[in-house]
Amino acid sequence: MNTLKSPSRRRVLSVALGAGLGFTGSAGPAAAQVLTPRQSAGPFYPLRLPADSDFDLTRVEGRSARAAGTVVEVVGRVSDEAGRPLAGGRVEIWQCDAFGFYHHPRDRGGRADPNFQGFGGVTLGDEGLYRFTTIWPVAYPGRTPHIHFAVSGPGVERLTTQMYLAGEPLNARDFLYNAIRDPAARASVTVAFDAGAEGGRPRGRFDLVLGSSFLPR
Predict the structure, then answer these.
(1) Is 109:93 a contact under the CB 8 Å cutoff?
(2) For the range 39-43, what are the long-range contacts, defined as Cβ-Cβ under 8 Å and sequence gap of 24 or more?
(3) Which of 4, 75, 78, 166 could bridge to 128 as Cys pair (CB 3.0-4.6 Å)?
(4) pTM of the complete model
(5) CATH number listed for the domain at residues 9-23+30-212
(6) Rounded CA separation 82/15 (Å)
(7) pLDDT of residue 197
(8) pLDDT (0 to 100) of residue 156
(9) Which residue ranges make up each domain of the chain?
(10) What angle do CA 196, 202, 207 make, to 5 degrees?
């Protein structure tokens, strides 16, 4: 079983940055009230969490080079369908590198970009906001581009899902994307990116909405 470490100073700072960047009226309810559909965690969730697993997946502590690929920002808010934030919860993401490899021994182990974390986690503040710096997701054999997400917290049933790219042609053939039968639910995990982030980086907003029964009472 993976052991989660206490949030580092860098991880806590990331929440403060998320609260100040890219959220107009961020204290209000999430825009989308459709419940986020559950999806598979896939076979490549880390067997052991990396020592550096903060909000910036494009930098690995102790290495000078940045990860290959286009740097993007993913921001969002975690709430229930009534707009109540999941304060103190945890959001994790994991994805393949720019060449289609995961940091996992079952995925042709050892070939993933050493400058890419592949996994990151943050603790949510009072407004349920998160922010990650990562790379533009890419396709690999059998899958459309995607980023895995997991949300957890005290008294919360863990939610695992995947985020997809709006306008990606491979979505039409992806079995997991099309397994979401409800068009509104599928739209809720399909994210459009713009160039509004720091330094002109593409930014996408992905709000996650949990059912009220999942949140602590």
Answers:
(1) no
(2) 39/160, 39/161, 39/162, 39/176, 39/179, 39/180, 39/189, 40/160, 40/162, 40/176, 41/148, 41/150, 41/160, 42/148, 43/104, 43/106, 43/107
(3) 78
(4) 0.84
(5) 2.60.130.10
(6) 22
(7) 62
(8) 87
(9) 9-23+30-212
(10) 85
Instruction: Return the pLDDT at 77.
Output: 97
Q: Which two tokens stand for residue 64?
A: 């000078």
**Calpha distance 56→62 (Å, rounded):** 14
* Mean pLDDT per 10-residue segment, the chain (217 residues): 35 43 42 85 91 95 96 96 93 97 87 95 97 98 97 90 98 98 97 82 96 62
